[in-house]
Amino acid sequence: MTNTVSLLDVEMRFAASLAIRRMSLEVRSGEFFSILGPSGCGKTTLLRMISGFLQPTSGKILIDGQDMRDVPANRRSTAMIFQSLALFPLMPVWENIAFGLEVRGMSKARRRQEAERLLELIALPGYGERMPHELSGGQRQRVAIARALAIEPKVLLLDEPLSALDLKLRQRMRAELRELQKRTGVTFIYITHDQSEALAMSDRVAVMSAGELQQVGEPLELYTNPATAFVAEFVGENNIMSGTVIDTFGDYAVLEGAHGRFVGRRSATLRPQMKARLYVRPESLSVDRQETENRLVAISKRFDFEGAFATAHAVVPHDSDPLSVQLAIPHQHLGQAPDIGKSFVAGFSRQDAVVLAHE
Amino acid sequence: MNEITQRFGRPLGACFILLVLLWLAGLVLVPNLTMLDFALRPNLPATQLGGPKDGYSFDNFLYLWNHPSHGWIFLKTIWSSALVTVLTFLICYPLAYWLGQVSTPRQTSALLVLLTVPYLMNEVLRGLAWYIILAFDGPLNAALVHLGLLSEPVRWYGDGGVLAGMAYAYLLFMLLPIYNSVSTLDHAQIDAARDLGAGTLRIHRRVVLPHAKVGIATGCVFTFMLAAGSYMAPALLGAPGSRWFTQLIYDWFFESGNWNRGAAYGVTLLVLCLVAVLGMLRLFQVNLTSAVK
User: Fold this and answer.
1) CATH assignment of A237-357, given 1.25.40.180, 3.40.1280.10, 2.40.50.100, 3.90.1310.10?
2) What CATH topology corresponds to A3-229?
3) Which of A161, A288, B231, B252 is the most exposed place for a label (fewest CB within 10 A)?
């Protein structure tokens, strides 16, 4: 598989701060690649460097193997979907879609034809003469995508394009985007701070924090095998237990903290005496397990029914450091849910827990 | 009308409407009708007013029409005003774009202050400043000759001087409306156009100019009207060959004492300016209310 976009030791420095620290990244051609991180982590900077609006302070950006230094934004084979969409409000939909073709000198008749073909691709046939303000949010979204696809880019860059939509529409657009990406085979680089969006749509996800790459991997990989404490805490929900590593054996580490001794999978670099945290997903923590290790005695505090499952909030009592834990209970097993105010035993298997170094 | 009484109540609403009507009657209708009345009557000694010779006719307008040079001066005034408008636009558009889309907030406020400061000074004094700058042995000629750009001083007074003086005097009237509308353009649209491959010229032609259209029309209307009605700049910076139509009107009123003919000239200028403005708005496909806003 070839790479469409490669970043080699890219660094971006603004006057006072380092927005991107020496970063290398490969995006394969034809994949749906997401960059996930909290706001201010540098992901938009990264996207603007790939599109050519920003020049990296040092390092190289290759698109299709070609060095992009000194290639301005209007000469790159990338197309961007802006957060605000940035449709041209004074042009009808078809002119919006055909704008990139107009630039390339295509005749008006062929532009119209091409716009109509793209309108069909995004399931809006016959909408060419409408003005952007006459469309709904989801329709505008699709027009913005058609406008970007019209120039047949090698890479489509999407800057949180769904963040302005309401939840239902956002979920539908996720599926549509994914579908469109598969159908056109164009490489998508998608920026988001919404982890469920990244997990649901992507082939691979890069997690970023404070200008640094934390982990690159498939969604399931990130969820089950977070490489750093940041990834474990940012992607999905986790119960967190802090302590010190007292022993390691094979792929496992034993952590001792205020609430007891726990065993979980470990990263290769973890050594005894290191400060660490153990992470276990709410759905991996369950009531009345028969195991002898990894047990917690907790008092049930609150119970949130959320449809497919319910979340039980509980506290493991401790004089100075009481620990809040969450258990996700599928709705079929609600009978097992602990009564409010009662104490119960929760446990998890060592397979489902991860121990990661933490300062 | 209903909306006004609903919002402010009957007594206060009636007050507002009355004030507007008074404004329209006192400051628009009565003066203009008086001027039209003057324009249509002959210039008579006081004893003959209301006598057999006093009556309505188009004689004063026909005088302008048949005069060997006044009609020409009239056309030249319209043409030069259009030229001033174009020149001012060419100066202001790049500036407004820079202010509205490129500059940092600090640069914006610094430049706006710098541009506004000269306007704190009296208009006549600003004209005099140009009078000094453009003088035959003034600083501009001295500098250009010193730099070797000119081999000998040039007489700037005349068409060139009037053009420069007016472009300077009406800069802000053009700049501010354009700046206003350019600054409301979402910068992402410029990025999007560039991202799709557009060069700078196309971005302006297809994205920025259409967006700023209303501001441009407003600025052009202001500048054109002010230029056509200007008296100070041509009087100070002009030469006999660059007489402005307003100078003729002034002469009829205050040199020849013929108010009736002066009024006819004034009405003609007013009507032609209105036609020019409406034509300009049609050209821009902007309607009058949105331009005035």
Assistant:
1) 2.40.50.100
2) Rossmann fold (3.40.50)
3) A288
